[in-house]
Task: inverse folding
């Protein structure tokens, strides 16, 4: 591939033509057109979300129904390519539906951001300057905060933080925000930049950057499922309820004890969380970054769920920061995000936080239920069977027969290939 300049200035077709001159199998790019939307206005809208856009990348959009959350029913949209995720979530949601459903235990919504700066003077003078100017700092951003305040939010606090134990001369203006139903990144960053602008005029002060923090442990939700241990009856074939509860808790505890298991455990949780976040037009990178940092908040990386068994009661809980929005940004612009939010009853940000946490908990419950009983591969490979069959160009009839054949057998790529070869020679 050659270096190119002015690529961003080329039209979409010119970009594709240039790429074609660089590829040995240029015709493969023809497929791009198959994924352009017939509705040109929507296609343009999608292209303008990003830069140098030449097409759309399709992912499956699925629904897991039967989520009972705080007494309300939801059908939850998932955008994910991994075959077993929606099925596992739907199965967990159905299981908990008859056992009281998902319940919110705690929810907080405060976000934060920092003006990072260096101060090359006497610390006590800085502290005095800060105290003397605190009110004028608030005044300087009053106009920016005004609209959000009308909605019940706004900038809530500004503190001076001494960070010199971490880095010489390093201080922060540490501000907190309530952003209501918006994710609020633009709101927070605009205010921080104005605060940075204000203090850049202070003596000995060198502002480095002004940016929100995606670490939001004060914007988090705890969602739980619980039932008497006996009510776990039927959770898996040939397993006693109390044995299941015991093994399940062990599995959750292992993710508290070992980083190697914890990362995989949390990956499973994010299978559910990211899928709903994508479907609703939220920023899954921010949520992932924060979730993993939160998982390591005591210095060791641990699972984001906990399980408790006491006095005959089984409870399973997720505790996770989720800085989400349901207005503004992609949530308002992306046609499919609008569909998702409509499907969820146009929730406010707090309700979306609960739904997303429930999806993560459901996903984790489904994964652990399989892991401590049948193992993960049985269900996973069953769901993957169709992918393998499609990869091997199986016909409709072959797919039907393969599904019957593998219903009670272990699925593997070579097993499916051999099955198709055998049925081929039989016909
Ligand atoms: C696979 O995508 C996710 C799991 O590995 C999660 C887990 O092990 O808990 C099944």
Result:
């Amino acid at each position: 591939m050659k270096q190119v300049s002015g690529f961003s200035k080329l039209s979409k077709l010119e970009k594709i033509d240039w790429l074609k001159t660089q590829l040995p199998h240029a015709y493969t790019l023809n497929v791009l057109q198959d994924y352009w939307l017939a509705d040109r206005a929507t296609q343009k809208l999608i292209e303008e979300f990003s830069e140098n856009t030449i097409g759309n990348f399709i992912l499956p959009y699925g629904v897991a129904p039967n989520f009972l959350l705080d007494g309300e029913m939801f059908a939850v949209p998932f955008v994910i390519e991994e075959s077993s995720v929606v099925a596992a979530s739907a199965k967990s949601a159905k299981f908990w539906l008859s056992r009281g459903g998902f319940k919110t235990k705690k929810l907080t919504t405060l976000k934060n951001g920092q003006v990072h700066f260096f101060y090359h003077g006497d610390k006590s003078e800085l502290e005095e300057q800060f105290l003397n100017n605190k009110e004028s700092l608030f005044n300087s951003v009053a106009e920016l905060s005004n609209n959000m305040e009308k909605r019940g939010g706004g900038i809530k606090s500004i503190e001076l933080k001494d960070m010199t134990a971490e880095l010489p001369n390093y201080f922060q203006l540490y501000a907190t925000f309530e952003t209501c139903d918006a994710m609020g990144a633009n709101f927070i960053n605009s205010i921080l930049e104005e605060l940075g602008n204000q203090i850049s005029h202070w003596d000995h002060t060198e502002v480095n950057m002004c940016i929100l923090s995606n670490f939001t442990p004060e914007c988090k939700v705890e969602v739980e499922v619980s039932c008497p241990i006996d009510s776990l009856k039927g959770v898996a074939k040939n397993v006693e309820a109390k044995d299941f509860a015991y093994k399940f808790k062990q599995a959750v505890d292992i993710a508290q004890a070992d980083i190697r298991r914890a990362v995989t455990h949390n990956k499973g949780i994010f299978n559910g969380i990211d899928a709903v976040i994508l479907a609703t037009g939220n920023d899954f990178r921010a949520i992932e970054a924060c979730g993993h940092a939160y998982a390591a908040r005591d210095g060791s990386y641990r699972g984001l769920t906990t399980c408790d068994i006491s006095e005959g009661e089984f409870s399973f809980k997720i505790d996770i920061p989720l800085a989400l929005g349901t207005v503004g940004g992609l949530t308002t612009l992306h046609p499919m995000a609008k569909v998702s939010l409509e499907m969820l009853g146009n929730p406010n940000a707090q309700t979306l936080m609960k739904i997303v946490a429930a999806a993560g908990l459901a996903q984790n419950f489904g994964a652990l239920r399989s892991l401590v009983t049948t193992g993960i591969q049985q269900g996973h490979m069953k769901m993957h069977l169709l992918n393998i069959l499609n990869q091997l160009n199986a016909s409709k009839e072959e797919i039907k027969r393969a599904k019957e054949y593998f219903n009670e057998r272990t699925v593997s790529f070579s097993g499916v290939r051999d099955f198709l070869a055998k049925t081929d020679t039989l016909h």
Remarks:
- Residues 82, 264-265, 267-268, 271, 367, 371, 376 surround (R)-mevalonate (CB under 6 Å).
- The first strand starts at residue 61 and ends at 69.
- The mean pLDDT is 96.
- The radius of gyration is 26 Å.
